[in-house]
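Regression test attached.
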Amino acid sequence: MRSDNSSTIPALPSDAAVQADRRKLLALLLATPCLAKSFLAAAAEAVAGETTTAAVGGKFMALSEFATGRSKLDPEVGAALLAALRESDASLSTALDDLAADASSGKYSDVEGLEAAVRGTPKHAALLALVSAWYTGSVPVNGKERFITLQEALLYQPIADGSHIPGNCEGATNSWADLPLPALAPMPTER
Amino acid sequence: MANLTSADVVVIGSGVCGAMVAHQAVQAGLSVLMLEAGPRGERSDYWQRFMNLPVTNRARGDMQSPFPQSPYAPFPMFGNDDYLILKGRDAGAFRQAYLRAVGGTTWHWSGLCWRHLPVDLRLKSTYGVGRDWPFPYEELEPYYVKAEAEMGVSGPSNPAEHSPAQRSAPYVMESIAYGWADRRFAEVAARGGYKCVHIPQAKNSRPFDGRPGCCGSNSCMPICPIGALYNGMVHVDKAIAGGAQLIDQAVVYRIDTDSKNRVTAVHYYDRNKQSQRVTGRAFVIAANGIETPRLLLYAANDRNPRGIANSSDQVGRNMMDHPGLHMGCVTKDPMWTGHGPVQQSSIVDLRDGKFRSEYCANRIMMNNQSMATSAGVTAVSMGLVGKKLDAEIRRRAACTLDFSIGFEVLPDPENRLRLSADRKDALGIPHPEVTYDVGDYVRKGADAVRPTLLNLAKLLDATEVKITDSFNANNHVMGGAIMGRNPNDSVVDADCRAHDHDNLYIAGGATMPSASCINSTLSMVAVSLRMADRLKQAMKT
């Protein structure tokens, strides 16, 4: 029984617009990758205004795949990140276009080569900003971090065999007691 | 059953201590009204807010942002907080992260449930420092048992791991199993002659009291997603189920007293900033170690010009926490913290010893919090890309360790909370202002523990060893309304009843006369349960 005088505080816009009880929440936890999608679609629209997934086009995603070494990046995340990057620094658009041209030129076999080549130019800061956005799932806008995604943040991928995102349940009680200890190498394969 | 304007017992604050007292009172057939300054929120909302925090906030340990504030009940915010004003030599060691919300700060606690040692209650008579409690450990022990049962404390069945050894009942549940990192740390510590023990904690190692077993989210702080970790809401809801009334967003600001200096009523601002009055036979203030003295001081009236319960001038004095240091290092072999609860094992060999006449006790804990997020943020900030970036994230996430060392601070009347002279909240109530110095007793203790820490790092074959050089807070606020026999140097008596007002009780850490070096919540709850028994007895007469 709850007092009539108690109130429920408003939730932030989030992955799931639900008021879940424990059972619902457990189901929610098991379904987090799906939740990320619905939030991202909303976030992309809200943040980017007219920037839609389609409008982002292949150029930004191709650059992103080259810069991160991943082949399965989510275009909805890409749309939201690009919108935030543009808002964070208007000059990034040009630098990212230039980087996209460099990446597709065939001159560089990987991002390490591109990074070395653009050091000391405005493209270098743009490249690091792009990598940071994909790895952290957030972009600093006007001095404050703008959250885009957690579940798709790439920083959790290189450790997926030895760790999980805090906040997500790992498993049944004590299931972690006898897990094998992964070595530092090799890396887990891309999801 | 209480109504919304009067009750047998009016409890101010709905954190774990207030909720426990409210529950005890309704079980005894008393009508109870709880007034909580903060809002009532839902676990799912808090969890969603946590999952939508930027990773940079996560990496820096932001525990506050998932919990929204009521406009009239501010609490310290993460980052550039301007609510809790801090001054003094070790101001930074009192940067607290408490909540004002229904259920209180146990929304984001680690759940560690240590007991004080028997000697912690007679520090002055044993070591000539600090203060003695007005009753011995033996009198508190049954309430420790009761507190562990109410909260559902899991702990080791092996008596060799009990700290203290003096227990009259086993833990409610066996400990949650170690993950890789704690297992490895315990092995390494043993090689060095250090005894590492499972920390007793209010987390379910099996379904208990209608709540599930721990799912290893490794997010106890700031939010357990499934309620396997006990929090004050459990007893808020039990009290309400027993007939208690709860009014949230009710900021108490005035306390009326009669010619015998008994409390007759309290006044609060409701969520619409309208003043309301509540009467009762007895009143319990359980509003956190900072908000309790703040209220007592602000509620000064003609009969009590220095503040309620403050004829001794001790309200707001003797503020305590566990000053902390951290040691970070990178191990040669992977440790992979982050499996299971956030804190699992500790070395407690130095909780006591003759040295305590010279310097303080300590507890060394390996943090089992996942290093994944901070590893990623750090590696990205290094400007790495490609395979080097992934490898650095992996190395740091797998091999970084953090040790948290907690120290025992002594009660010092000069460590003092006052009302700010120039800053007020939206209701016009002055902000709390704390002057704090951990003291030489702690500084000497910190110097003494360094060789042990470095030896542990060596045993772990660790590099990049760094021990912080300034003390941090640990959010274990104690003092401010200290307990004692002498009305001239304490605020409440052994029953936690105000010396100045025979129907006013104070629950929680504010009353504790010694801090020990371990987390304080279980002791706060045990003292509150003991207080509740005394309150129930007094209400019969």
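Expected vs. actual: identical. Chain B has a mean pLDDT of 97.
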